[in-house]
């Protein structure tokens, strides 16, 4: 049965309302009709690669490594249809270029014995091939295997696709899996080859595959390969994004970065040879003419919530990098994005330090007018099918050289996308629509991608020639998706262009021409500007001469402000690399770079030499008119804000950047209420609405003003705002676990054994018999009385009692009890500050309760719980140990790579992967 539901679209987004439709159907069983389709059991070029692909940063390393396919991958020469494996794995890097890390091998080394493949488009050739004789038999009937011996876990019937516009197809499922997914299209009554649908789990929303573009087809079919069953709740998802009369106008208004190679005035003009070879499905539709003016992308007004920052300045600052002009980028509104479909607001990094290049996968035979429809389809699949917050990519490029805004939040800002698991923060994800394993995108598309990356990286002074650290890994600043994940993306042919792309981007950043060559009048403007600059230089020289006069800059500033400053006190003095002068009602501070500025009132009361060294000298006088009658003064590296209620406090650095993105005093944080403290690799400052903590290696975490409840950050998980956690930063008292364990085990049991066994026997016999003087015979009963009972009464019970259990046994029992207690409470609602299963709890409330039930008293907050135990390595971690990052904590489960935790209102109390915590440098703690 197919369940269909409509998605409402914002009429403000596009001229003609469009209602995308999503259809979903189960993909957990083998459809008899589907298996009877011609080529349903055909092997495919992707079978080998899919069975051996494991996405890095994905729970359980989702791999299809059943015995049969694993053997096929290494059993010598491949069958003819598998020859494409060689093509897919050669030419991955430019011969003159290093890999992303400089020394890492390209994904997949070709087998020297592999021969060139026949046409992969023909499914008949693959049907006639025989399984390799060396393959071991696979459990199941012959009908439930592909021709190369791979088990078919599930296969769909033929699914009809919409006519008249492209559609998007993909798979969603629950939990981890060891299977792979494949799709094929039916066009003109003929089936194409099976193609791999790569698993794309980004820790945001549910598990599933990448979206696959279906164009000019009448039907599709999907299958699940692998010895294991299809995962729970596996569904085939089909998105019909519909077409709109506004699509053509959107395409016309969004000017390609380079002029089309065909005649711009003739839509029927034949495509170039490069464009014609671009499509795996057939000939490319001719270019749609571009408008004279570019349609500048509008910055989305999404509010900033749950922002996660990388520590310090994340960009690779390079003074040689020149600002590159922004290319034309079509806005979300232009392609018809319904903003009601977004599942949250944009998250921001402190800066962008690398660009990651992708392809979307699927058909390349789309027309220019199809592009807005495809964008809506990808958007609906990501948000409604997968449950993501928004489109995964920051920007998308089509094969016609046009750029389009993807994820909301503003293309000029450091919006955190969902395109590379573990590497989203601080990266710019750009994806080209289509598949590029066999042929690269047209040059005009590569030029557009180069221009977008050159512009984006130049905003933060990042050079394409540099390397940086992204997600804990040392990589180039311009990389392909496969450089940070075991995936074929962006396709072998496209990836082979990366070396030339870096060189082109570097040239743009060095001041070379962008793909949009400068017009004559722009060149003239540049020349005029150079002349003006020379005149300005002469003026500056004259100004320097004029400054050589009797009065100092501080004295000149004082002349017009005598009344508000009062009389001077003493002489000008040197301070923090500049000059200062004290007056009755304040100071004037001066440096050559900032000039002379007045500091008075409450702000003057906090400014001293130490603070000037921290936030620099004032670059303007005090300004008022802020919320709650507040005033502030800007300094070169920070600012000082004051209200009567909060006093005067300085902000600077990464915490000020976070506060800025939250709206300064107009946001939920309000004004600062304490000074900044920096100690031992950590910075902290309190505000009216929360407390900000930056820890080296973890970034900035926000807590409530009281310091005991999370405020504004429900989930620290990088893809949907993160997993919530308690505050509580900094060391606590000495661990209380070991002292409380010792008295309740050995000391209490040993004393209770000895007195109750031997002492109670002997005193009751000896005193009563020794009162009689004579009995010589009493010596005989004594041995019979005391020898026999003693071994039977005292020796037997001892081995069966707890003291005889080894410490290892006791520890295992304790761990088993903790896991059992943790399991009892699955599904308990998440509640900030909660500590009870009846009313809900947060992460540390949950761990405190579970351990408390097992005799271990943990402190209330996450960092105190961390300090209450011993830090251990990941290899040492066992079920029942804790896993911690600043602001969140969980209990290691009995399943490898998973934990029990109270994560957020989205996850509540559940068992899930802790991989996202590892990406943030998680620490394992032992309290047992």
Automatic annotation (TrEMBL):
<feature type="domain" description="NlpC/P60">
    <location>
        <begin position="812"/>
        <end position="928"/>
    </location>
</feature>
<dbReference type="GO" id="GO:0008745">
    <property type="term" value="F:N-acetylmuramoyl-L-alanine amidase activity"/>
</dbReference>
<feature type="compositionally biased region" description="Acidic residues">
    <location>
        <begin position="109"/>
        <end position="135"/>
    </location>
</feature>
<dbReference type="InterPro" id="IPR038765">
    <property type="entry name" value="Papain-like_cys_pep_sf"/>
</dbReference>
<dbReference type="GO" id="GO:0006508">
    <property type="term" value="P:proteolysis"/>
</dbReference>
<dbReference type="InterPro" id="IPR013207">
    <property type="entry name" value="LGFP"/>
</dbReference>
<dbReference type="GO" id="GO:0009253">
    <property type="term" value="P:peptidoglycan catabolic process"/>
</dbReference>
<feature type="compositionally biased region" description="Low complexity">
    <location>
        <begin position="40"/>
        <end position="51"/>
    </location>
</feature>
<feature type="region of interest" description="Disordered">
    <location>
        <begin position="247"/>
        <end position="294"/>
    </location>
</feature>
<feature type="region of interest" description="Disordered">
    <location>
        <begin position="708"/>
        <end position="814"/>
    </location>
</feature>
<comment type="similarity">
    <text>Belongs to the peptidase C40 family.</text>
</comment>
<feature type="compositionally biased region" description="Basic and acidic residues">
    <location>
        <begin position="506"/>
        <end position="560"/>
    </location>
</feature>
<dbReference type="Pfam" id="PF01510">
    <property type="entry name" value="Amidase_2"/>
</dbReference>
<dbReference type="InterPro" id="IPR002502">
    <property type="entry name" value="Amidase_domain"/>
</dbReference>
<feature type="region of interest" description="Disordered">
    <location>
        <begin position="38"/>
        <end position="166"/>
    </location>
</feature>
<feature type="compositionally biased region" description="Polar residues">
    <location>
        <begin position="311"/>
        <end position="320"/>
    </location>
</feature>
<feature type="region of interest" description="Disordered">
    <location>
        <begin position="506"/>
        <end position="570"/>
    </location>
</feature>
<dbReference type="GO" id="GO:0008234">
    <property type="term" value="F:cysteine-type peptidase activity"/>
</dbReference>
<dbReference type="InterPro" id="IPR015510">
    <property type="entry name" value="PGRP"/>
</dbReference>
<feature type="compositionally biased region" description="Low complexity">
    <location>
        <begin position="279"/>
        <end position="294"/>
    </location>
</feature>
<feature type="region of interest" description="Disordered">
    <location>
        <begin position="308"/>
        <end position="342"/>
    </location>
</feature>
<comment type="similarity">
    <text>Belongs to the N-acetylmuramoyl-L-alanine amidase 2 family.</text>
</comment>
<keyword id="KW-0378">Hydrolase</keyword>
<dbReference type="Pfam" id="PF08310">
    <property type="entry name" value="LGFP"/>
</dbReference>
<keyword id="KW-0788">Thiol protease</keyword>
<feature type="compositionally biased region" description="Basic and acidic residues">
    <location>
        <begin position="769"/>
        <end position="814"/>
    </location>
</feature>
<dbReference type="InterPro" id="IPR006619">
    <property type="entry name" value="PGRP_domain_met/bac"/>
</dbReference>
<dbReference type="InterPro" id="IPR000064">
    <property type="entry name" value="NLP_P60_dom"/>
</dbReference>
<dbReference type="InterPro" id="IPR036505">
    <property type="entry name" value="Amidase/PGRP_sf"/>
</dbReference>
<feature type="compositionally biased region" description="Acidic residues">
    <location>
        <begin position="751"/>
        <end position="764"/>
    </location>
</feature>
<keyword id="KW-0645">Protease</keyword>
<dbReference type="GO" id="GO:0008270">
    <property type="term" value="F:zinc ion binding"/>
</dbReference>
<dbReference type="Pfam" id="PF00877">
    <property type="entry name" value="NLPC_P60"/>
</dbReference>
<feature type="compositionally biased region" description="Acidic residues">
    <location>
        <begin position="731"/>
        <end position="744"/>
    </location>
</feature>
<protein>
    <recommendedName>
        <fullName>NlpC/P60 domain-containing protein</fullName>
    </recommendedName>
</protein>
């Amino acid at each position: 049965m197919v369940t269909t539901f409509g998605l409402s679209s914002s009429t403000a987004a596009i001229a003609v309302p469009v209602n995308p439709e999503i259809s979903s159907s189960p993909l957990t069983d083998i459809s008899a009709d589907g298996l009877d389709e011609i080529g349903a059991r055909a092997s495919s070029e992707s079978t080998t690669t899919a069975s051996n692909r494991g996405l890095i940063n994905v729970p359980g390393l989702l791999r299809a490594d059943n015995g049969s396919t694993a053997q096929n991958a290494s059993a010598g020469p491949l069958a003819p249809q598998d020859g494409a494996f060689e093509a897919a794995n050669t030419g991955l890097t430019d011969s003159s270029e290093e890999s992303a890390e400089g020394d890492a091998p390209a994904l997949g080394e070709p087998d020297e014995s592999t021969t060139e493949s026949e046409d992969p488009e023909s499914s008949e050739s693959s049907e006639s091939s025989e399984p390799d004789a060396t393959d071991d038999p696979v459990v199941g009937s012959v009908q439930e295997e592909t021709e190369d011996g791979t088990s078919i876990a599930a296969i769909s019937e033929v699914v009809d696709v919409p006519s008249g516009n492209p559609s998007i197809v993909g798979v969603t499922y629950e939990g981890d899996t060891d299977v792979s997914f494949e799709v094929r299209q039916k066009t003109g009554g003929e089936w194409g080859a099976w193609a791999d649908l790569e698993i794309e789990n980004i820790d945001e929303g549910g598990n599933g595959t990448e979206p696959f573009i279906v164009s000019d087809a009448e039907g599709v079919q999907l299958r699940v390969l692998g010895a294991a069953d299809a995962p729970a709740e596996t569904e085939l998802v089909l998105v019909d994004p519909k077409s709109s009369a506004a699509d053509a106008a959107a395409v016309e208004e969004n000017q390609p970065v380079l002029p089309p190679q065909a005649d711009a005035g003739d839509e029927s003009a034949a495509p170039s040879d490069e464009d014609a070879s671009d499509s795996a499905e057939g000939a490319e539709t001719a270019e749609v003419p571009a408008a004279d003016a570019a349609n500048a992308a509008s910055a989305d007004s999404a509010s900033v919530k749950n922002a996660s920052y990388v520590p310090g300045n994340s960009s690779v600052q390079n003074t040689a990098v020149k600002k590159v002009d922004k290319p034309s980028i079509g806005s979300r509104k232009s392609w018809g994005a319904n903003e009601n479909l977004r599942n949250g607001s944009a998250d921001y990094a402190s800066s962008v330090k690398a660009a990651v290049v992708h392809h979307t996968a699927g058909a390349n035979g789309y027309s220019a007018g199809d592009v807005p429809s495809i964008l809506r389809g990808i958007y609906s699949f990501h948000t409604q099918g997968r449950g993501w917050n928004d489109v995964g990519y920051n920007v998308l490029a089509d094969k016609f050289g046009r750029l389009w805004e993807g994820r909301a939040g503003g293309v000029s800002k450091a919006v955190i996308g969902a395109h590379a698991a573990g590497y989203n923060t601080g990266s710019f994800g750009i994806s080209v629509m289509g598949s590029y394993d066999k042929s690269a995108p047209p040059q005009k598309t590569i030029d557009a991608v180069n221009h977008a990356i050159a512009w984006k990286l130049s905003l933060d002074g990042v050079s394409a020639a540099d390397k940086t650290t992204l997600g804990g890994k040392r990589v180039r600043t311009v990389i392909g998706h496969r450089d940070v994940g075991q995936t074929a993306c962006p396709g072998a042919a496209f990836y082979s262009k990366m070396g030339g792309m870096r060189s082109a981007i570097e040239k743009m950043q060095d001041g070379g021409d962008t793909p949009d060559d400068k017009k004559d009048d722009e060149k003239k403007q540049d020349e005029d500007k150079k002349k003006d600059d020379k005149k300005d230089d002469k003026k500056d020289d004259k100004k320097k001469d004029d400054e050589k006069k009797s009065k100092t800059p501080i004295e000149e500033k004082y002349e017009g402000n005598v009344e508000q400053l009062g009389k001077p006190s003493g002489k000008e003095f040197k301070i923090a690399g500049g000059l200062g002068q004290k007056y009755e009602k304040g100071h004037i501070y001066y440096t050559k770079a900032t000039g002379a500025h007045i500091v008075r009132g409450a702000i003057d009361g906090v400014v001293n030499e130490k603070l000037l060294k921290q936030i620099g000298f004032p670059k303007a006088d005090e300004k008022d008119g802020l919320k709650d009658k507040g005033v502030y003064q800007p300094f070169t590296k920070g600012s000082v804000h004051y209200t009567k209620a909060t006093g005067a406090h300085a902000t600077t650095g990464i915490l000020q950047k976070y506060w800025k993105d939250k709206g300064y005093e107009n946001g939920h944080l309000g004004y600062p209420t304490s000074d900044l403290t920096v100690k031992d690799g950590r910075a902290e400052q309190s505000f009216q609405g929360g407390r900000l903590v930056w820890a080296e290696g973890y970034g900035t975490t926000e807590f409530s003003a009281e310091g005991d409840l999370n405020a504004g950050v429900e989930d620290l998980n990088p893809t949907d705002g993160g997993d919530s956690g308690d505050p509580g930063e900094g060391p606590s008292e000495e661990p209380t676990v070991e002292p409380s364990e010792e008295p309740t085990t050995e000391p209490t049991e040993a004393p209770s054994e000895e007195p109750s066994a031997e002492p109670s026997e002997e005193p009751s016999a000896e005193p009563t018999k020794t009162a009689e003087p004579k009995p010589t015979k009493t010596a005989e009963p004594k041995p019979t009385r005391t020898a026999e009972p003693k071994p039977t009464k005292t020796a037997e019970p001892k081995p069966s009692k707890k003291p005889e259990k080894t410490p290892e046994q006791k520890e295992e029992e304790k761990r088993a009890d903790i896991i059992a207690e943790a399991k009892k409470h699955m599904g308990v609602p998440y509640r900030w500050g909660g500590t009870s299963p009846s009313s809900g709890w947060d992460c540390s409330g949950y761990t405190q309760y579970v351990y408390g039930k097992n005799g271990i008293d943990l402190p209330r907050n996450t960092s105190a719980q961390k300090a209450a135990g011993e830090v251990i390595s990941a290899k040492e971690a066992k079920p029942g140990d804790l896993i911690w990052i600043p602001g969140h904590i969980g209990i290691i489960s009995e399943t490898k790579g998973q934990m029990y935790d109270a994560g957020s209102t989205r996850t509540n109390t559940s068992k899930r992967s802790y991989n996202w915590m590892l990406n943030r440098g998680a620490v394992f703690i032992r309290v047992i």
